[in-house]
Amino acid sequence: MTGKLAEGQILCDETGTKVAKVMELIGPIKRPFASATPLTNNIKKYIGKSVFTFDHSPANTQKFRRRRK
Asked: Number of structural domains, the chain?
């Protein structure tokens, strides 16, 4: 892993598809491992592939809703 990774962040693949959510960081501080829960049913396709983090978690952002007239 490179850069900062925090618990609760969403991991995505090259196309931006949400793959997993980081649940906890374990291991040494210099080279931690991330334990993640999959967000897709076909997780075997992502084994050994690179995943990336969003700058902000889309799960924490508020959705825009239009008011009814």
From this structure: 1
Place of tokens 């592939």: 49
Question: Domain of 46?
Answer: 10-60
Greatest C-alpha distance within the chain: 55
State both tokens at 58: 């889309």
**pTM, rounded to two decimals:** 0.65
Burial of 13 (0-12, 13-18, 19+ CB in 10 A): middle
Walking along the chain (69 residues) 10 residues at a time, the average pLDDT comes out as 75 87 90 89 87 65 66
The answer to the question of residue 52 being in a domain is yes
**Residue among 15, 25, 9 at smallest CA distance from 45:** 15
